[in-house]
Amino acid sequence: MPRFPRTTSTADGLSDRIFSDLGARARARGGRIYALQVGDTYLDPPAMMRAEAQLTSEHVRLHNYAPVQGEPVLLDAIVERLSARSGAAIDRELVQVTNGGTSGLSVIAQTLLDPGDEVLLPSPYWPLARGIFASRGAVPVQVPLFTRLDEPGFDVEETLERAVTPRTAALYVNTPNNPTSRVLPPEALAAMARVAARHDLWLLCDEAYEELWLGDAQPAPAWAREDFRGRSVAVHTLSKGYGFAGARIGFVHGPAEAMRALRSVNTFATYCAPRPFQLGAARGLREADAWLDEARALYREAGTRAARALGVRVPEGGTFLFVDVSAHLRPGEETCAPFLERALDAGVWLTPGSASGSDFPRHVRLCFTAVPPDDLDEALRALAPLLQR
Ligand SMILES: Cc1ncc(COP(=O)(O)O)c(C=O)c1O
């Protein structure tokens, strides 16, 4: 049957309606709106990373193509950082620069998953993760996990095990997690590794929030664990830690057999990442540790204040709070949709929990780093009347 004028069933299955509906309401409302629905930051990136810090006069062919694998100076900086983080030398050949984490996960999906393969997706999850796997024709299998970590007797291994089928090919591991801001404890990671080993699964580690740990110390990276090594492919991004989202710089690393194929896939997907921002990223990875410390302190403060105002657990890492608003719904309200509308009418734009999994129709997500502290306080004040029981 001819395709024209139909689009693919994969594309038809991807919907951003929930976001656009609220967007239309926000536009119709006008006035000041605190946009806490997107994971973003009010901070500008470190000075040496910024667009205006990369000068054509200082870099020959600044706006030309970069090598497919990545700018040599950035690859060196990545290898240094990963090696320091894992305590083991990382082979430069096994690193690929990507156009941010979204593209990184997308090329991982194209490299490691065939259409019809199932991916275990612990939920709630980063809203785009599901669509990225679905775009590949893979089947994301939601497994409620992050919100259950504190349940007495909750067993990560058994829970994942129950979701495995003969089609399962991979397990997605995002810690710190978007949207719960939970960090997976070592026992949970060990349980994941056992399931992966038992069923020969790839472990897809999403390190987007690796620099935004908000506890006392940076958690050890999952991909560097003995029981993850060899079967884990990790995706990193400078979007979150460094406030560099518009620059679209990320990177992937993993075992040789995955990375050889991934480099080809990346060539056909994007060819290379923007050269000026690769040069900025290289400097940031080497020179911006003090900036990261300050950013973390600001975010820690914001996250703690927001968590107290909303009556939820203080975030362990990341930029979000995930709040069950069941108690604040009115009689007859089944989902958070009317709550989101009330929040928007009060000037605060939040994300529906359903974007992070079908088990969360009565949760909402709030980004506490998207606006400066005074604006966040204003937004929390505006939300307060909606949160009274
Ligand atoms: C868990 C997670 N992974 C990856 C990304 C991708 O980030 P980017 O494409 O901006 O690098 C995000 C962005 O929100 C995220 O939350």
Briefly characterize the structure.
With 389 residues, the protein is of the alpha/beta class. The chain has 12 helices and 12 strands. Helix 2 runs parallel beside helix 11, helix 4 crosses helix 8 and helix 10 runs parallel beside helix 12.
Layout of helices and strands:
Blueprint: H1 9-12, H2 17-29, E1 34-35, H3 72-86, E2 95-98, H4 100-112, E3 118-123, H5 127-135, E4 139-144, H6 156-163, E5 168-174, H7 186-199, E6 202-206, E7 232-237, E8 250-253, H8 256-269, H9 275-287, H10 289-310, E9 320-324, H11 337-345, E10 348-349, E11 351-352, E12 363-367, H12 373-383
The chain binds pyridoxal-5'-phosphate.
Description:
With 389 residues, this protein is α/β, with parallel strands linked by helices. It folds into 2 domains: 9-44 and 290-387, Aspartate Aminotransferase, domain 1; 52-287, 3-Layer(aba) Sandwich (Aspartate Aminotransferase, domain 2). Helices cover 37% and strands 14% of the residues. The strands form 3 sheets. Strands 2-8-7-6-5-3-4 form a 7-stranded mixed beta sheet, with helices on both faces. α5 (127-135) links the parallel β3 (118-123) and β4 (139-144). α4 runs parallel beside α5 (127-135) and α4 packs across α8. Bound molecules: pyridoxal-5'-phosphate. Residues 39, 100-102, 126, 174, 178, 206, 208, 237, 239, 245, 250 line the site of pyridoxal-5'-phosphate.
